[in-house]
Inverse folding.
């Protein structure tokens, strides 16, 4: 079970803003993934704080992938942007996990304080209706987002306050998804750190934040153990192998991103990785399979080129882990 549910065909565009700890600030001409005008009305100037939150929500953390319902075509229903998806995860017995409404409506986040929203995103704890605390199921990767900087968390909340209200009271998830305690935060001590002599060390460190703290690369490209309080297999970070049963003829499996030459991306250049993120095409010209949200219509297609390069340099710095990943579907090269 992963934060990424499928290609995001029409996410709001990044609107700029400073990169802070986690980014280089990008450059002019960054690709956009289809603006909906969120964060401002009638051409009004968007504040740098809201713009930064827009970018993080839509292109780094890819929140819309999980929190926007989908049409029969598989495309996101942008009239219900961030309004929550019913039966986002369905068990064989029919039990459902529903993603929550994040819009600025009473059925969403309107009546939640900034502190409450931050606690849900970072710690997986929602405001309790009774005497006991309630915890989010770790399908929501709050244990990764725990390390988002205070400035970026302020930006995310500021942006969420601007999301148009959608009246959608998402039902409570089935009891099968109730958890008695929160998952352990992903400790910064276990997130791979670029070697001191890595040639692009500063860039890779910025990429580390985008890939493993504010973003979901580590969550999607690491096998899960949902019975463990750590959720992720900590000795296999970024080594791929997580399955995504999303209804395709072949079950996609996340790729090994480590620098292993035989089973990972050891033979890829940083430019190859940037190309994959921004265009959704691998080093051999094949299209990447869902749920990787890459390409012009995906969340990562709106990454600023500088941030995409930072992520690429971080991935190039990852220590090699041998992990053969089978059945990663791909599309044939374009003619």
């Amino acid at each position: 079970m992963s934060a990424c549910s499928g290609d995001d065909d029409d996410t709001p565009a990044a609107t700029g803003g400073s990169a802070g700890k986690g980014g280089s600030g990008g450059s002019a001409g960054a690709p956009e993934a289809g603006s909906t005008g969120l964060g401002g009305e009638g051409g009004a100037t968007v504040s740098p704080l809201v713009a930064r939150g827009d970018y993080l929500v839509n292109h780094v953390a890819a929140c819309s992938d999980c929190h926007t319902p989908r049409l029969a075509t598989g495309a996101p229903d942008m009239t219900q942007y961030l309004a929550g998806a019913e039966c986002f995860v369905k068990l064989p017995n029919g039990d459902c996990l529903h993603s929550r409404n994040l819009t600025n409506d009473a059925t969403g986040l309107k009546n939640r304080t900034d502190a409450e929203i931050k606690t849900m995103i970072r710690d997986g704890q929602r405001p309790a209706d009774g005497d006991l605390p309630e915890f989010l199921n770790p399908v929501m990767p709050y244990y990764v987002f725990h390390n988002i900087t205070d400035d970026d968390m302020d930006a995310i909340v500021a942006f969420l306050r601007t999301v148009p209200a959608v009246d959608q009271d998402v039902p409570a998830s089935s009891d099968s998804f109730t958890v008695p305690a929160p998952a352990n935060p992903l400790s910064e001590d276990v997130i791979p750190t670029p070697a001191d002599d890595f040639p692009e060390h500063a860039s890779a460190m910025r990429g580390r934040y985008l890939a493993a703290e504010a973003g979901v690369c580590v969550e999607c490209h690491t096998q899960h153990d949902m019975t463990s309080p750590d959720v992720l297999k900590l000795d296999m970070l970024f080594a791929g192998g997580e399955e995504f049963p999303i209804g395709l003829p072949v079950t996609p499996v996340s790729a090994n991103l480590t620098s292993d030459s035989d089973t990972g991306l050891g033979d890829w250049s940083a430019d190859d990785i940037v190309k994959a993120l921004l265009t959704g095409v691998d080093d051999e010209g094949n299209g990447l399979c869902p749920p990787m949200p890459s390409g012009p219509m995906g969340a990562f297609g709106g990454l600023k080129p500088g941030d995409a390069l930072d992520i690429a340099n971080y991935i190039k710095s990852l220590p090699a882990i041998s992990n053969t990943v089978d059945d990663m579907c791909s599309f044939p090269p374009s003619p």
In short: Residues 48-60 form the longest helix (13 residues).
